[in-house]
Amino acid sequence: MHPSTRRCFPRAAGLFAVLFSLAAAADNPTPFPGTHVIKTGHSYQALVEKLPEAVARNKMGVVAKASATLGAKSIGVTIPGNMVVMVFHPRYAIRMLAASVPAGIEAPLRFYITEGADGNATLTYREPSSVFAPYENAELDAMARELDAIFARIAADASS
């Protein structure tokens, strides 16, 4: 082995180890505190239909939906089911903004529906208390705890 190769091999091995650990870290399914990942026995389409019903039963509203699946389909590409459902209600928006105008960037809160290789859907969401915690505002924290219970019920209703 050439002497320069012997000097480079440990560096290359070290670089590979760093890159490998970064790739593993990039694959963390719950990088934020308070993230819930619920594997359901429902198909993607069934969960897409059940979630808005659960939102309404819990007196919240679907503000908007965004689907990478539909976007990809519009350019002729097929990808597994993928949709973000944005949920909030004006009564909470008023309270949120009274407590903290900067926190308004966090609303609406989101549920994320993804389709697994087995055809079953997964529902992911972050607890509102985790979303609003960085603002360190007691009024906002109280509202977020109320929303935690509502979001947990929505997730349970939709995934059952």
Q: Give the low-confidence spans.
A: 4-25
**Helical segment tally?**
6
**Separation of the first and last Cα atoms:** 62 Å
CATH architecture of the largest domain: 2-Layer Sandwich
Radius of gyration: 21 Å
Number of E-type strands: 5
Describe the protein in words.
This protein is an alpha+beta fold. It has 2 domains: 1-28; 32-159, TATA-Binding Protein (2-Layer Sandwich). It contains 6 helices and 5 strands, in the order H-E-H-E-H-E-H-E-E-H-H. Strands 1-5-4-3-2 form a 5-stranded antiparallel β-sheet. A hairpin with a 4-residue loop joins strand 4 (109-115) and strand 5 (120-126). Helix 2 crosses helix 6 (138-159). The longest helix is centred in the first third of the chain and has 24 residues, at 3-26. It starts with a helix and ends with a helix. The model is unreliable at 4-25 (pLDDT under 50).
Key terms:
160 residues, five-stranded antiparallel β-sheet, alpha+beta
